Amino acid sequence: MNANKDPKVSVIMNCRNCSRYLREALDSVYQQTFKDYEIIFWDNKSTDNSPNIALEYGEPIRYFQGEKFLPLGWARNLAIEKARGEYIAFLDCDDIWLPEKLEQQIKLLDSNKELGLVYSDNYVIDGKGNIKNKTSFDNLTPMRGNVFNNLLTDNFIPLLTVIVRKEVFSKAGLFNEKYEINEEYDLWLKIAEYYPVDFIRTPLAKYRIHGGNFGKNVEKYINENFQIITYWLDKKPELNTNRDLMNKVKIKKIRMHLRLAQFLFYKHEYRKGIVTLINSVKSVFT
Question: What does pTM read for this prediction?
C-alpha cells in the first residue's frame, strides 16, 4: 500500500484476549491477493499477549487500545471511526480469511456502485482449525438485491465475510451500542433498508467455533432478536400488512421461543422455561 494515499479497504479487527488464534487471523489478512488495505486493530483491554503479537506485525496495522473494556458493537464503532478506506471489512481475531476474499468481493463492489454490502459463504472450523462438513450457506439461504424483508425473518449474512461501502454508514448509521450480541444483525437491517446487497457463493472465510465463543448468552441473543424485530415492525407499520412476511415472522418467533425454552430447561430454570413455552403458544394466535 502507498503510504501517501488512503487504502482501498480498512480491515476492522477487534481483539479481546485472543492470543491463541491471533497469528492465524492476522496471517490470513497479510496473505490476501489484494494488497491495498490497512488493519484497524482495536485492542479492547486485552490482558493476554494479544497486543504484543499485533505490534510485532507492524505496517499496515494501525494499533489502538481502548481506555476501558467496551461491548463489541461500541468498540467496533470506535474502530470504524479510525478507518480511512473506501470499504470496511470485518475479521474477528479467532476467524480466518481465504487468500482471494478481498480481491473477489472488491471486484463485485467496484462493478456495482449501488451495492451497500457484499458477503459470502464461509467454512465452519473447530478450535483446531478442522473444517466441519457444512458451510454457513448449507444452513442459511443467501439472498441478493433488496433483501430487507428476507433479512427480517432470517439473518443470512455472516459478519466475517462482509465488506461494506464506508459511505453507507453516513445514511444507515453504525452498530447500535445497546445490543451486546445481536449488534451486527441490527446493522445489516439498517443497511438493507436503503441499499441492495450481493453475495459470492464460494466460501471465502473460515468461522471458528470453540469454547470461548460457542457459549454465548442464548437468552440475551434471543431477547435482542425479539427487540430488533419489534423495532422494525413499529418503525415500518406497512410491514404488518404483508401477510406472507408476517407469517414468516410468526414462525421465527415461535422457533426463538422454543429455542429459549430448551435453553432454560437445560439450565434447570423450569419456571421460566414453561412461561416461554406459553409465550410460544400465544405467539401463534397474535
Answer: 0.92
